[in-house]
Amino acid sequence: MDELVVVISMVGATLRVATPLILAALGGLYAERSGVVDIGLEGKMLGAAFAAAAVAAVSGSALVGLAAAIAVSVALALIHAYASVTHNGNQVVSGMAINIMVAGLAPTLGVAWFHQGGQTPMLKDDARFAPIALPFSRELADVPLLGPLYAEVISGHNLLVYLAVAAVPATAWVVFCTRFGLRLRAVGENPHAVDTAGVSVVWLRYRAMILCGVLCGIAGAYLSTAHSAAFVRDMTAGKGYLALAALIFGKWMPWPTFLACLLFAFTDALQVRLQGVDLFLVGVVPVQFIQAIPYLLTVLLLAGFVGKAAAPRASAIPFVKDR
Amino acid sequence: MSAASPTALPRWVDVVALPAVNLLAAFLLSGLVVVAIGEDPFQAMGLLVTGAFGNAESIGYTLYYATNFIFTGLAVAIAFHAGLFNIGGEGQAYIGGLGVGLVCLWLGDLPAVLVVPLAILTGAAFGAAWAAVPAYLQAYRGSHIVITTIMFNFIAASVMTYLMVNVLIRPSQQSPESREFATAATLPRLHEIADAVGLEITASPLNLAFLWALICAALFHVFLWRTRWGYEIRAVGANETAAIYAGISPARIIILAMAISGALAGFVALNELMGVHHRIILNFTGGYGFVGIAVALIGRNRPLGICLAALLFGALYQGGSELSFDMPNVTRELVVVIQGLVILFCGALENLFRGRIAAYFQRPATAGAVS
Q1: Do A79 and B344 touch (CB under 8 A)?
Q2: How many domains is chain A built from?
Q3: Which of A77, A317, B229, B321 is the one with CA 20 to 30 A from A158?
Q4: Residues of B in contact with A109 (CB under 8 A)
Q5: With an 8 Å Cβ cutoff, are B144 and A302 in contact?
Q6: To the nearest whole angstrom, how far is the Cα of A2 from the nearest Cα of chain B?
Q7: CA–CA distance from B328 to each of B38, B44, B321, B337 (Å)?
Q8: How far apart (Å, rounded) are the C-alpha atoms in residues B79 and B148?
Q9: For residue A102, what is the nearest residue in chain B, using CA coordinates?
Q10: Domain for residue A313, yes or no?
Q11: Taking the model in full, what pTM does it have?
Q12: Looking at the complex, does the CB of residue B325 fall below 8 Å from at least one CB of chain A?
């Protein structure tokens, strides 16, 4: 029974760690499906995390913080779109610029505004996204297996976790079942065909980047106002790049990307569990090795050793209209 | 990196005026950030300049930072010339540091004339090897080098943390640092050299690695513009299809360019580990690999430009840390903001002002043709 409790709590932890990855990776999915490479997920998340915590601290409302986070993240996404779509700039350079700019801007503004060494003030409970207990979770808690499963895994998360999980089918529907989705996929594969059909390549890519900004904004708000109670320096700590890896690992498809996020988050939960544990036959697995697993897997996948991942064909190529 | 410009501009406009305008735009926005945090941007700029060049010590620090940026700037630039974007400078510098450190720890008893070249070679080899793997995967397995080098940065960090915490850590010590290098395995600092010949210079971390950085910049020029391999790298970067017709193998060139790139990045360890810390420490790369991107972009991927851009960023880093002492609202991260804005304007938005400037230069010509 003890193992069961451990497993269930690990699944719960996995979901909580996976939430920002899912949101950011789905944001990246819109961008990359439209043919815009976005390594700026990290910067958008970090900027959003700072905005959410700063605004929530001042206004005392988590929702206002969320709105600020989305606004900042969308603004950053629009800078990326302006550079790489309007001015045909190098998309990787632009993404990198945004990451570095925000990595400097967040602590700079944080120190100037709050005088706490780059942190934002600790948020009170009502300025955060609180866990939501679904109906009957307490009543069912005593039921074997099903009770703890319901209470730990399905119930008791905050709004943004449910939003992240809901974003997966929503994205799958938008990308594969709507006219916008069809055009989005087409513009990432062959923008000239889309242009010939009389659809604006630029406007499509801008819309994709706005969606990307919204999702990264929610991811950032989750980090600072739901998962933690304040913004701290370098809060994203590479999660944006991990989300990018998950997106590649999921071959730019919503459900596989979701599963990749869960897998990567699970290695994180596992690493906490396995610290210093002597495994049968293997011995103690170094924490650093488990931390590196997602990156190793992504490299192996990209190299074609674990299946094959092919990016949208027009990725990173600026669209120049034919004469 | 960018597509061929639609309009040909006079060379000095392309090499000097455009980067200057882009740089100016980045600095203007940085000034607005200073205003936003409630400080006077002109006063900040004055403090920054005196902080970077005000006295011998600050100049020493500026040049010490610039040393790192010359190495990483050249590293990014050589990959750019082959049409590749190497984001992995950070990881390559880190692993290069492992090579440098191992030589200094194990062979530190040898005379300096042997240890220093060995450390240079090993650092280069380790950095090159770390860059060659993503290069191989790009050349022969079709995986995208940007993504792979990003992943390799994280893998390098994991590997180094593991080695530092479990293997290289000095026994009976808590913080993950190696034992100190023997004196022969350190690079003399400028003030020590000056002291030996009877001159007195204020102490600073500026060391012989700076000289090696300048030599690397000169070699970079000779290699890229005066040798066959350099020509092949530029040919692949300019037009891969044409290069194939000329009998050049792009796969080989990709690996060559990335290996050199990784080797150059690995030299950061000479300055940091052999020059300053005299031991292997965690995170000695401190984001210098990423600064290399900005340096290469402003320096237009040319060695002289890179040295000047490295000096600019050295001054920003040194001046920025002085500024953070003088202005309570300013932190060292302000420099990172400037760095990001520079990459944005000189890299991603390089076409922003190009059209307008091109129009200005073409107007007299067409007017003359009409009359």
Answers
A1: yes
A2: 1
A3: A77
A4: 36-37
A5: yes
A6: 31
A7: 10, 11, 12, 17
A8: 14
A9: B337
A10: no
A11: 0.88
A12: no
Partnered with residue B177 across adjacent β-strands are: B281
pLDDT attached to residue B263: 96
* B269 phi, psi to nearest 5 deg: -65, -30
- Residue B69 inside a domain? The answer is yes
Instruction: Please give the sequence-ordered ranges of beta strands (E in DSSP) within A112-176, or none if there are none.
Output: 131-132, 157-158
Task: Give the pair of three-digit tokens for residue B259.
Answer: 């290996």
Q: By three-state DSSP, how is residue A250 classified?
A: coil
- Give the CATH number for residue A94: 1.10.3470
Angstrom CA distances, B278 to A14, B288, B326, stand at: 41, 18, 30
Whether the Cβ atoms of residue B148 and residue B84 lie closer than 8 Å to each other: no
Asked whether the beta carbons of residue B344 and residue A101 sit closer than 8 angstroms, the reply is yes
What does the block give as tokens for B181?
């290098």
Q: Are strands A283-284 and A157-158 parallel, antiparallel or unpaired?
A: unpaired
Subunit contact B154:A241, Cβ cutoff 8 A: yes
User: Per residue in A49-73, pLDDT tens?
Assistant: 999 999 998 888 889 999 999 999 9
Distances (CA, A) of B247 to A21, B140, B229, B235, B239: 45, 18, 13, 11, 13
Q: Which domain holds residue B238?
A: 64-306
CA distance B289 to B292: 5
Domain total in chain B: 1
Q: What is the ipTM of this complex?
A: 0.87
The residue range of the domain holding A281 is 2-302
pLDDT tens readout for residues A16-49: 889 999 999 999 999 999 999 999 999 999 999 9
